[in-house]
Amino acid sequence: MTPGGPVSPSHGALRPLGPDEVTITGGFWHEKQALNSTVIIDHCESWMERIGWIGNFDRAADGTIGADHVGIEFIDSEIYKLLEAMAWELGRTPDRALELRFNALVARVAAAQSADGYLHTSFGREGQPARYSDLEWGHELYCFGHLIQAAVARLRSGADDLLPAVARRLADHVWEEFGPNGRVAVCGHPEIEPALAEFARATGEPRYLELARLFVERRGTGTLGPIQHGPEYFQDDVPVRDATVLRGHAVRALYLSAGALDVAVETADDELVAAIAGQWEQTVARRTYITGGVGSHHLDEAFGADFELPADRAYAETCAGIASSMLSWRLLLHSGESRYADLMERTLINNVLASPREDGRAFYYTNTLHQRVNGSVPADDTVIERALSSLRAPWFWVSCCPTNVARTLASLHLYFATADDEGVQLHQYGDYSVATTLPDGQAVTLRIASAYPFDGRVVVTVDSAAEFTLSMRIPEWAVGARLDGTPVDSGTARVRRAFAAGETVTLELPMDARFVRPDARVDDARGQVAIERGPVVLCLESVDLPEGVDTENLVIDSTRPPVTTPRGAVVLVHERIGAPERGWPYGQQVSYLSQQVTAHLVPYFSWANRGPSTMRVWIPES
Ligand SMILES: [Zn+2]
Fold first, then answer.
1. pLDDT for residue 381
2. Is pLDDT above 90 for 622?
3. Which of 41, 368, 369, 493 sits CB 3.0–4.6 Å from 488 for a disulfide?
4. Residue 47 burial class via C-beta count within 10 angstroms: exposed 0-12, middle 13-18, buried 19 and up
């Protein structure tokens, strides 16, 4: 089996582990992976079959598609993200029925590939726009990127068969068209950059890395034509290495950064590595929601200005949270710094996991932090527009997020732990096992047991005797953490010893609910508090309030600390009575009577699973 998960750099501080080295065995994360394998993957496949998106490939193959392509121009990518999810799933758990479905779907995709390697159902045939006639909006290379990433998942799961062969022909075609002797151009939506860099790593073909490098270096040089949102939208305003913060369309910016870092690492371009790390830092410090979500403009799905983070207009697209985690993972592998895993934890739990409904049959595309009015219930059999849902919807005309959730959950375990020459590093917590071999030949087998993210006790059992360093991430929020009873600071705690078989190490992370306040420059949250419990951001949802009490008419009594409950917290709030009837909501002093209400807070990721509701993460202080 080719080592490594979705990202396998040739060098770096940490070595990623492969599908045969990490297994999630139970608990919270296992439930999420099981929901994906039993519901979400099937849901995505059946919707795309039913509304003709997969059928596009059949009609492209038999030459009948013409102008009758179903759906918008980038939906090929959804089939590819589904294939990636299936490939990781097959690498995780062999499943004969899924293998047959995967092979059948790959065969339909492969049949639509042209003799010269080109593969897209929207362009180049009679009745369709010419190939590469709309690089600004056409998403051709973007779709190719997702096919190539699916092929990487297949290779890393131990199978070099039809999908990687299709991807090789496609990547070779891109080399002819866009390589050193081809047109000097980029795609309006980055994605092929990290895909090609990873395909180079997985196949050993240096041309694919060079192609990724060319795409990264051409970005920001004005090769794309003018669009209404301006060149910043697709990061064509400034060369990647000259930018200081992420800007424009959030998913585009983050996919590009992931690919640029891959290129920088493989070409030993330290200047580019430093530029990307600096952009990550500025973006986290100034343009990221408390949930880890990014993007505060609905119009162009884009980052706002520094500290422009409106809760009720949060875009925080699920895909942007996934893309953010893709970048953080790469920076973690390169540097070994725990802050990157901190952000991944925050983003995966509080932004990405908020997308799927508890039953896995509906999704959020955008992830607001403040719902002011009850949403309507989308029909279970209707496709809706991307961001108009107030409750999760079963499918969208722009449906990038559900398949992105599927591929992320299928590969989730591969982001939990790494190895280096000295030992093993645990970055995320839950019930899982690690079995790897260190460069000195010692086998290290670990069992990690924890009811995380709701319980802070993590017990690591070393199954066979070995001398190595066990490193554990101490989250930035975990003030008062203890390792085998000894206080440890946030960052990385290391234990090096000759472990006996059966020896355990116990980490205790404090899980008391706590108030969190924003930097004063986050105007939309100033004067309010949020409540976090361990890594989980909580929220106040109307269904947890007494009948008739309105989430919009409450202030919190922050003089009393929140009381921790098994999955949330209880806080005291005051309902304002008499105030809103003044007719003018401004004055030198706005006073009102109030009555005390006990409010039960729940994990933000779980909101809107009990019918229409209003919700807020930030609660005004009294
Ligand atoms: Zn999306």
1. 84
2. no
3. 493
4. buried
CA nearest to 172, candidates 113, 122, 259: 113
pLDDT band at 590 (very low <50, low <70, confident <90, very high): low
Please tell me the distance between residue 68's alpha carbon and the centre of ligand 1 in angstroms: 25
What is the rounded radius of gyration, in angstroms, for the C-alpha atoms of the chain?
A: 24
Count helices and strands (H / E) in the chain.
Answer: 14, 24
Q: How many CA atoms lie within 13 A of 223 on its CB side?
A: 18
Q: Which of 206-215, 373-382, 586-595 has the lowest mean pLDDT?
A: 586-595
Say if CB 276 and CB 262 are below 8 A apart: no
| Residues by chain with Cβ below 5 Å of ion ligand 1 | 317, 319, 400-401
Distance from Cα 365 to the centre of ligand 1, integer Å: 6
What is the distance in A from the centroid of ligand 1 to the CA of 308? 21
CA–centroid distance, 324 to ligand 1, in Å, is 12
What would the pLDDT profile of 184-234 be if each residue is shown by its tens digit?
999 999 999 999 999 999 999 999 999 999 999 999 999 999 999 999 999
Can you give 30-87 as a three-state secondary structure string?
A: HHHHHHHHHHHHHHHHHHHHHCCCCHHHHHHHCCCCCCCCCCCCCCHHHHHHHHHHHH
Distance 315 CA to ligand 1 centre (A): 11
Average pLDDT for residues 569-579, to the nearest whole number?
86
| Cβ count within 10 A of residue 516 | 16
Residue showing tokens 């999810």: 85
CA atoms within 13 A on the CB side of 565: 12
Q: What is the distance in A from the centroid of ligand 1 to the CA of 401?
A: 4
Calculate how far, in angstroms, residue 343's C-alpha sits from the geometric centre of ligand 1. Answer: 19
pLDDT at 102: 98
pLDDT at 591: 66
With CA atoms as reference, report the closest residue to 121 among 101, 95, 139. Answer: 139
Interatomic CA distance for residues 385 and 375, integer angstroms: 15
The owner of tokens 């790494």 is 418
* Ligand 1 midpoint to CA 317 (Å): 6
Specify the pLDDT at position 1.
45
The answer to whether residues 286 and 307 touch, using CB atoms and an 8 Å cutoff, is: yes
CA of 208 relative to ligand 1 center, distance in Å: 26
Beta-ladder partners of 556: 573, 621
Read off the pLDDT of each residue in 13-25 and give the average, rounded to a whole number: 97
Decide if 454 contacts 28 (C-beta within 8 A): yes
The HSE-up count of residue 405 (CA atoms within 13 Å, CB side) is 33
Distance 97 CA to ligand 1 centre (A): 28
Contact present, 8 and 198 (Cβ < 8 Å): yes
